[in-house]
Recover the amino acids of this structure.
């Protein structure tokens, strides 16, 4: 019995169950900047997003720029939340708040729309 229990304890970390819990969630949006919008302007929008909306909603973003890729024209918005549930809550808040153009989210969305076009979006569990 002790040998069986020891095997369970030793092999449990190798089971699919050990991969269930994630350490966070990444929201990755591939973006094409408008020719009239510089990377510096887009980063400023991201900074304003983090300070005025993201931090209060458990969502923190950064902008990454490829230096080696088949697509050197795109930039990537990488948002992070504690987990997929936190991302879902932040997304619900963002979607609801952008319906009001006078809200913080509505004003930020207007700036995003003027500066960039989202070309794809992916979500990832982080381990």
């Amino acid at each position: 019995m002790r040998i069986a229990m020891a095997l369970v304890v030793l092999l449990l970390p190798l089971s699919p169950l050990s991969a269930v819990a994630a350490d966070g969630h990444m929201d990755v949006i591939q973006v094409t900047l408008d020719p009239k919008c510089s990377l510096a302007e887009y980063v400023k929008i991201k900074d304003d997003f983090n300070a005025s909306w993201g931090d209060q909603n458990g969502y923190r973003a950064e902008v990454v720029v490829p230096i080696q890729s088949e697509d050197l024209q795109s930039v990537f918005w990488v948002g992070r939340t504690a987990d997929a549930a936190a991302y879902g809550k932040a997304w619900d808040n963002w979607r609801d708040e952008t319906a009001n153009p006078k809200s913080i989210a509505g004003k930020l969305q207007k700036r995003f729309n003027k500066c960039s076009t989202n070309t794809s979006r992916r979500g990832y569990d982080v381990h």
